Amino acid sequence: MGKRLLEQKQRIDRERLYPPREAIELLKALDGAKFDESFEVHVHLNVDPRKADQLVRGTMMLPNGTGKSQRVAVFAVGEKAAEAEQAGADVVGAEDLASRVQNENFMDFDVAVATPDQMATVGRLGQILGPRGLMPNPKSGTVTMDVGRAVEEIKRGKIEYRVDRYGIIHGIIGKKSFDTDSLVQNYFALRDELVRARPAAVKGRYVKSITVTTTMGPSVKVDPAVERE
């Protein structure tokens, strides 16, 4: 552990549950890395991801975006390919794009979108895209005929969330350069979305813990019970 991170950890009360705003302000006040770090939220849910009726997954728009520019690849032909290009897609193709991914290891994109008729082609890339979390999926809105809207929403900051095998949701709510109000608004938007997505099969306490951190900073425990200001 670096000396800077160790010193920062000592400024945080490890036993305290901080109000979200105070936690965010504390992290913003700490000396950071030379780049604009991301603000991360990690929400531990009382779910068993191995059970289909307890899987928490969805998409949402953060009110202030993530601060990250997403590169979008679209698998489409004809009018839908033109629609994707007009909406700002970074790369558009069909068999030709699939061939680049499969044979040239082309992976210069953060999100993949496909029209339903292209899923047979995209399906061949499952072993490449799947492990990277890039496989288009109807549940996340990335398999759609409305490719223009999908691209625009992703570019504006639409995020996908999915519980991991440990029952934890990992999300980015912005950059350290964001003002505190914007980060607080994004935090509550994500938290409230996860509360709405609570599976009916989950009994008892749903949110076990929440921590916020920055890319290179320490973690701060947040009080899940604190409501919007």
From TrEMBL:
<dbReference type="GO" id="GO:0003735">
    <property type="term" value="F:structural constituent of ribosome"/>
</dbReference>
<dbReference type="InterPro" id="IPR005878">
    <property type="entry name" value="Ribosom_uL1_bac-type"/>
</dbReference>
<comment type="function">
    <text>Protein L1 is also a translational repressor protein, it controls the translation of the L11 operon by binding to its mRNA.</text>
</comment>
<dbReference type="InterPro" id="IPR028364">
    <property type="entry name" value="Ribosomal_uL1/biogenesis"/>
</dbReference>
<dbReference type="GO" id="GO:0019843">
    <property type="term" value="F:rRNA binding"/>
</dbReference>
<dbReference type="InterPro" id="IPR016095">
    <property type="entry name" value="Ribosomal_uL1_3-a/b-sand"/>
</dbReference>
<keyword id="KW-0810">Translation regulation</keyword>
<dbReference type="GO" id="GO:0015934">
    <property type="term" value="C:large ribosomal subunit"/>
</dbReference>
<dbReference type="GO" id="GO:0006417">
    <property type="term" value="P:regulation of translation"/>
</dbReference>
<comment type="similarity">
    <text>Belongs to the universal ribosomal protein uL1 family.</text>
</comment>
<comment type="function">
    <text>Binds directly to 23S rRNA. The L1 stalk is quite mobile in the ribosome, and is involved in E site tRNA release.</text>
</comment>
<dbReference type="InterPro" id="IPR023673">
    <property type="entry name" value="Ribosomal_uL1_CS"/>
</dbReference>
<dbReference type="InterPro" id="IPR023674">
    <property type="entry name" value="Ribosomal_uL1-like"/>
</dbReference>
<dbReference type="InterPro" id="IPR002143">
    <property type="entry name" value="Ribosomal_uL1"/>
</dbReference>
<keyword id="KW-0678">Repressor</keyword>
<keyword id="KW-0687">Ribonucleoprotein</keyword>
<keyword id="KW-0820">tRNA-binding</keyword>
<keyword id="KW-0694">RNA-binding</keyword>
<keyword id="KW-0689">Ribosomal protein</keyword>
<dbReference type="GO" id="GO:0000049">
    <property type="term" value="F:tRNA binding"/>
</dbReference>
<protein>
    <recommendedName>
        <fullName>Large ribosomal subunit protein uL1</fullName>
    </recommendedName>
</protein>
<dbReference type="GO" id="GO:0006412">
    <property type="term" value="P:translation"/>
</dbReference>
<comment type="subunit">
    <text>Part of the 50S ribosomal subunit.</text>
</comment>
<dbReference type="Pfam" id="PF00687">
    <property type="entry name" value="Ribosomal_L1"/>
</dbReference>
<keyword id="KW-0699">rRNA-binding</keyword>
